[in-house]
Amino acid sequence: MQRVEEFIRSARDVAGSILDRVKSGSNLLVVGHNDADGLSSLGVAGGVLRELDAYFVLRCVRKIDDFLSGYVDGEFDLVVMLDMGSGYLNELYDRVSKSRLIILDHHYPLHLKQRPNWEHYNPHLFEIDGSVEISASGVTYLVFKNLLEEYYKFAPVAIVGALGDLQDRGNRKLRGLNRMILEEGIKTEVIKVAETLVLNGRTFRPIHLALASTYNPFLPSLSGNEGACLSVVTSAGIELRDGDVWRTVADLSDDEVRALYNSIIAHMVENGYSSNIASELYGEIYEFTNEEEGSSLRDGREFATLLNACGKGDHAWLGIAIAMGERGRLLDKAHKVLENYRSALAKVMEKILRPGMLEHMYNIVVLRGGDMIDPKQVSSIATLLSSSHSLPLDKPLIAFAYDGDQVKVSARASSELVEGGLDLGAIMSLSAAKYGGRGGGHKVAAGAEVQADRLTLFLLEVDRLVGESIKERRKTPEATLEGG
Q: Which sign does the torsion angle of CA 235, 258, 275, 173 carry?
């Protein structure tokens, strides 16, 4: 049974520990992951700590080893880990003993070994599903909101992290504790919510460019293809301009929205793709009223995409600054990073959607990215591919790319498999550990790192464990019927 009230009360206790250190003049190290959720978490923490005039350093890392390799125990009075740590308690136990450690994470804790001077704040410890109900930025927000009177101005950034972690998947709406944070933002008038077409840049891009800029879900033959998108819009009978001004998706009437939606579906079917993908194009949109009209940051999903591009494109510092509230020239620079990142992803997606790129094993589908995919982008590619409806629903996707003598693995599963009991995080953890690597994550999205020379054995183990999970799942209905 979920213990939501206890979870929220515990946030105040953790906040008190942080405030005590700030008031005493302690030096703080805040470490976060390099994806949109991690950067949003760093933005919330950094923004609040800056207003408190705290002594702190923000650091973004791609993996736990990047943190451990440069960490000197005792150099900082307090270390706060965001969007990471819960899956690596054993490694941290051996390395972090002199400094006080606070972990704010939403990944499933694989071990509970910890020291007396640690605090571990994680929704899973309170029977709350951190994979869909709250992200790390939401966890960070629930803690740091207790330190600032105008805490609500960071509610949009907490929502950005949840969107970056695709916690709106399914019906394209946020749920659980994310909903509570969203309602705080609505009540304080920093967030507006509406239901319509979910296209990137819906308030400031021309209609066809908004469609071409939409990568979640990834629309085969449309995402990144301005010409095809222009054809889809004109086929719907929609006027692109109002005089000399480009119209946006936000300018469309209800009838025009329906016409565009139907035109997208028709295009997908004509090109041999499933029409189901279009169902993910309609849902809630989250508008941040504190951002300027026409700004890409006014839309929650666009904000998340920009942060993800910064984090995965070696410009994490830029994403953190934007999440903390910096704008102007830094935002212009971030837009260029996003443009380059989208272009790179579109080129890779064009290659991997060709016939023969996916290998079907007994129970999994493998994308052998090899050297073709940047290891920093393999998680984004896996997400795009899994959202394109180009994969069977009864097999999870296992994508990998070489990272020196290691292999970076990213796994994705359909909601149908997860609802049936598949847990990719556990499978990645067990399979990687068996062959000297590390793995973990959520049921629906997980990752691992293994040595390149053990990749085949790792994939065979993943295939076996997924097969066992599916077999067990298929037994359940029969057992239920036999039991009456």
A: positive
- Walk me through the domains of the chain, giving residue ranges and CATH numbers: 4-193 (3.90.1640.30), 201-345 (no CATH), 358-471 (3.10.310.40)
Q: Quote the tokens at residue 452.
A: 């390149």
Query: For residues 24 and 44, is the Cβ–Cβ distance under 8 A?
Result: no
Residue 432 and residue 402 in contact, taking contact as beta carbons nearer than 8 Å:
no
Cα angle, residue 67 at apex, residues 61 and 73 outer, rounded to 5°: 150
Q: Which residues contact 290 (CB under 8 A, 6 or more apart)?
A: 153, 156, 190
Sign of CA dihedral 410, 413, 419, 422: negative
Q: What pLDDT does 389 receive? A: 64
Average pLDDT, the chain: 90
**Burial of 344 from C-beta contacts in 10 A (0-12 / 13-18 / 19+):** middle
Q: What is the pLDDT of residues 261-314, one digit of tens each?
A: 999 989 988 888 777 777 788 899 999 999 988 888 999 999 999 999 999 988
Stated pTM of the model:
0.89
410-447 CB burial, b ≥16 within 10 A, e <16? bbbbbeebbebebbbbbbbbbbbbebebbbbbbbbbbb
Task: Copy the structure tokens of residue 250.
Answer: 């936000």
For the chain, residues with pLDDT lower than 70 are 389-392, 472-484
pLDDT in tens, 200-227: 888 889 999 999 988 888 888 888 889 9
Which residues have a Cβ under 8 Å from the Cβ of 325 and sit 6 or more positions away?
43, 47
Contact between residue 3 and residue 11 where contact means Cβ atoms under 8 Å apart: no
Q: How far apart are CA 123 and CA 130, in angstroms?
A: 6
CB atoms within 10 A of CB 259: 17
3-state secondary structure 8-43: HHHHHHHHHHHHHHHHCCCEEEEEEECCHHHHHHHH
